[in-house]
Design goal:
Number of domains: 1
CATH superfamily: Alpha/Beta hydrolase fold, catalytic domain
CATH topology: Rossmann fold
Number of helices: 8
Helix content: 25-40%
Oligomer: single chain
Radius of gyration: 16 Å
CATH architecture: 3-Layer(aba) Sandwich
Largest sheet: 8 strands, mixed
CATH class: Alpha Beta
Amino acid sequence: MTENLLIDAAGIRLTGLAAGPVDGPVLVLLHGLGLGAADFAGVLPGLAADRRVLALDLRGHGGSDRPGAYTLELLCDDVLAALDALGPARVDLLGHSLGGVVAYLLAGRHPERVRRLVLEDVPAPHPREEEPALRPDGPLAFDWELVPALRRELYAPPAEWAAALAAVTAPTLVIAGGPTSHLPQDRVAELADTVPDGRLHTVPVGHLVHEAAPAEFTRLVLDFLAQDMD
């Protein structure tokens, strides 16, 4: 059964979804740019069979607040505040694309809070040529203002991101989407090499691995999280 979340994250209201036993180990899911907690609906039941899974809407997405201020630092602070509000001292953390950057920044800066880390099709922090972003027609499930603000950082990452990545202590699984992903796969592989305890697994279905191959994605994640449970 899926429940709706409403969290006061140090003054920013975040929404999301929760599933699984309340006394199980906690897995937090962070979505990609312009998506939301509901994007994980296809894998949420499988991931939540024996653990508490919390999928968050990052600020500006879904039902979360749209304060007009958007940086990766703020998104990271929001997630940390949400963990403080929800109670778990230590969690497993999974991030897709934008959510993966938030995840490794948090894991590198607060290693005591993250037991295991999963990064889905996330590149190492190197500058890339920014592609133009055109606003879709009609109403959006996210604040369009966040797109140019966050893309500026994603395409020209601050130097501090590499330091945070190198400081990750959690065992890390990097899931790559293969040649049909729009992300440079050599940079995704480099991410796995940069994290001190990283490993790479490619599922060649494109950027949205959890959507295109939900059964394989769920199996990979659960097998990885089950290792060395403490």
